[in-house]
Amino acid sequence: MPDQDNPATELISQQSFDAYSARWAEVTNQPDAATLKAVFLDHGKHITGLGFSMTQIAQLVATIGAAYIKVRFLIKPADLLGPAQFSLALFATDLLGARVSSYYKPQKVYTDTSAFVCPSQPGTPTVH
Asked: Count of domains in the chain?
């Protein structure tokens, strides 16, 4: 899957999106919640948020034909960087709900030991 080969990329391939979405559906429909709880950890810390860059948001908003920005919950599979983990994908759709953009993945993972930082006041944590 292309996006696993290059973790720096901002995009998720259709193949990866389908696999990650299917994994989310599979895990959320299991009677045992242990697997679901485990994917909300990043190196043992609880995930409290995911961050997208302003460039990503601007690209989505500027997509020709975009009427809505949608989000899907995903579970990325385990890889060399760590175990399976919760994630999101943002994408633009037209008025009829057809996708008109690439799938964008978060650039930042926030945990219970990190804070959101206000872009206009770097270094100033915000309430989350």
From this structure: 1
Report how far residue 56's alpha carbon sits from residue 43's, in angstroms, rounded to the nearest whole number. 25
Q: What is the pLDDT of residue 113?
A: 77
> What band does 6 get if pLDDT is binned at 50, 70 and 90?
very low
| Domain assignment of residue 117, yes or no | no
Higher pLDDT among residues 83 and 67, named by residue: 67
DSSP secondary structure string for all residues of 43-83:
TTEEEEEEE--HHHHHHHHTSTT--EEEEEEEEEPPBTTBS
Print the domain residue range for 50: 2-111
User: Which pLDDT score, from 0 to 100, does residue 12 have?
Assistant: 96
CB atoms inside a 10 Å sphere around CB 110: 19
Element (H, E) at 17: helix 14-28
120 part of a folded domain: no
